[in-house]
Amino acid sequence: MTKKERHIVALDIGSTKTCALIGEMDDEGGVKFAALGAAESKGWRKGQIVNLDLAVSSIRRAVEVAETIVGVPVESAMIGVAGGHVRGINSRGGITVGARPRDVQRDDVRRAIEAARGITLPEDREVLHVLPQEFSLDAQDNIRDAIGMVGQRLEANVHIVTASGTATQNIVTAVNRAGVRVDDTVLEPFAAAEACLTQDERELGACLLDIGGGTTELIAYAGGVVRHTAAVPVGGDHFTNDLAVGLRTPIPEAEKIKREHAQAFREHLTEDFPIEIASVGDRPPRTVFARMLADIVGPRAQELLMLIRDEMRRGGVESQIPAGIILTGGGSQLRGLPELAEKIFNLPVRTAVPRGLAGMSEEVSRPEYSTAVGLVLYGARTRRLAGARPAGFMGKLKSMFAGA
Question: What is the DSSP code (8-state) at residue 227?
Answer without folding.
Answer: E
